[in-house]
Structure prediction request, 371 residues.
Amino acid sequence: MNEQLLSIININKYFGKSHILKDVTLDIKDGEFITLLGPSGCGKTTILRCIAGLESIDSGDILLYGESIKDLAPNKRNVNTVFQNYALFPHLNVYDNIAYGPRIKKSMGEGEIKKSVAEMLELVQMQGYEKRMTHQLSGGQRQRIAIARALINKPDILLLDEPLGALDLKLRKYMQTELAHLQKQAETTFIYVTHDQEEALNMSDRIVVMNEGVVQQVGTPGDIYNNSKNLFVAGFIGDRNIKEVKVLQKKGDFCSVKLGNSVIYIKPDRSLVDHDKCSEMETAVLAVHMDKMKISHEEVPNSLYGQITFVHYAGSQIKTEVDVDGELLTVIEYQNDYGNYNIGDKVYVSWEETGALLLPKEDTTGRGQDE
Ligand code: ATP
Prediction:
């Protein structure tokens, strides 16, 4: 198991009267690729800036290798930041951009700098570009040089603030894979900020999902995707049908809920609602991954019965909308014969057990705390 590197302990941050970070606690291990994921304005960049020392914290502590760094100036913290706009020096060529940090810090002689720049260029696969000026590089290449320029300083942590945001979709997808490989090769801890769930799921060892300054869930991509801890995470990650249901009593090994006029059974391990405490007909939320659902003409156990209202063929993916007693459910299937299902067909809708989650309706924004 990797060594504990950074501990963020109960930090709070206010801008004026706005409570921006609310009791944020995170443990980050050496060598991890960890992503802060959440909607715009939820406080991701503020966390990075607090780690970098560019913002102070109002309470709590930040420990690097067990030592508090909260009162250290930014240049005394061994962390580097890569921004979306690269922040390369336009008047310097690639070599001098990468060599800039060690030269300013006088941490290496020119011989060592030459060797390190060559290593960095190899790491980001940009050998031979030493003499290019930055305006002669593509967006993806500039981003790689920005990363090389940060990594040459051998930071304990590299902070990356939406570094792929300015790239077009195709290049962004390519760079996601590149970055994930590069991080493992560089053996440097990456703390990455994005609001793009696909980016987070693709690259990270662990994801921290945030909303309104509150950490909602920390886990591996698989955990966050399949076992979302609350309604916010379930709504933010993946494409799910999210429906209010009436909670019925626990029956044997199953919990039963009512959607429209149909009763369906959920395994207790797929429910975060305490059925024993529920009074009959209390409401909860059923969240089902669209791509873990199936439709069929034949009746299947534990399914809903409805009528197809819309079929959309998008390459290998077929999106079907089914009306179940006035509730519209979207089903995404990948292997389905074209023309099997048509608008107006009566069908049964079911899902894999792991596709569904029953969640309490709750406030996850920390608004109960002092503002
Ligand atoms: P995005 O994805 O849009 O970059 P984010 O999750 O990184 O968003 P932050 O930049 O951390 O969000 O901002 C969190 C909140 O703090 C926002 O409401 C923002 O307006 C506010 N904020 C950030 N910096 C300041 C500042 N210097 N003064 C006042 N408010 C600020």
Summary: The two ends are 38 Å apart (CA to CA). The first helix runs from residue 44 to 52. The helical segments are 44-52, 94-105, 110-123, 139-151, 169-186, 197-203, 221-226, 231-236.
